[in-house]
Amino acid sequence: MRRRELLRTAGPLVAAGLAGCAGSDAETPGALVVSSPPLESGGTLPARFTCDGAGDSPPVVVDRVPDPTTALAVVAEYDRGLINEPVFWTLWNVPPETDRIPAGLPRTGTVESLDGARQGRRKGGEVGYEPPCPPAGQQYEHRFQVYALGERVDAGGGTDHDTVTEAIGDVVLASSRFTIDYQRQTPPESPT
Questions:
Q1: In 3-state terms, what secondary structure has residue 80?
Q2: In this structure, how many other beta carbons lie within 10 angstroms of the beta carbon of residue 103?
Q3: Structural domain spans, the chain
C-alpha cells in the first residue's frame, strides 16, 4: 500500500522532471553560468592551486546569475568516499554583480576586494582556501560548486565550513559545478 502511494506521488514528478531534460541542449533561461579558465571540468587541477604550487585559490568567472540573486557563494570539496567529502574552501556573500572572483584571494575572514565577502575554515584550520594536498600517488576528485543565493548568509568570516555549507544550502536559487582531478606525483626514490 505504501509503495503504491509513493509511486503514485513520485511518478508524475519524475516524468515531469525528465520531460524537461529530453531532447534539449539549450541552457535554461536565467541559469547560473560560471567557469574557471584554468579549471576545465573533467581535467586536472593545475599545481598552482595545490600544496605542490603556490596554493592559490582559483579564479571563477561569472557570466550570468538568475534573478533575484542577492549573493554568490563557492564551496570546494574533494571526494574521499561515500561519507567523507571534506570541504577545503567556502566563500560567501560575494556581490551578485561580480563578474570575476580573482585567483589568490587572501586567507582572511573578510575579503575586502569582493565588497566584504567572507571565507570559512576547517575546524581547527586556517581561514580561506586550503590547497588540496592528497597523499602522493592517490588521485582525488575535487568539486567546485558555485551558488546563486536568494539571501545573504548570516555568518561571520572564519565560520567553520560545515556550518556555512549548511547555511548556504538553505538559500540556494541555482548552482553550477566543475569537477577536476588531482594526483600528486610519487617522489622519486633516492639512490642508496
A1: coil
A2: 17
A3: 31-183
pLDDT digits (tens, 9 = 90+) for 18-30: 333 333 344 455 7
Q: Is the separation of the CB atoms in 160 and 180 below 8 Å? A: no
- 96-to-8, 102, 164 alpha-carbon distances in Å: 40, 15, 18
User: What's 161's DSSP letter?
Assistant: H
| Order of strands, sheet of 117-119, starting from the edge strand that comes earlier in the sequence | 110-111, 117-119, 87-94, 71-79, 139-149, 172-183
Whole-model pTM: value is 0.81
What is residue 8's three-state secondary structure?
helix
Sign of CA dihedral 111, 173, 178, 186: positive
Q: Cα–Cα distance between 172 and 148 in angstroms, integer?
A: 6
User: Looking up cell 500500500, which residue turns up?
Assistant: 1
Output the pLDDT for position 21. 36
Cell numbers placing 76 = 570546494
Question: Do 41 and 65 form a contact (C-beta atoms < 8 A)?
Answer: no
Q: Given this structure, which CATH class describes domain 31-183?
A: alpha beta
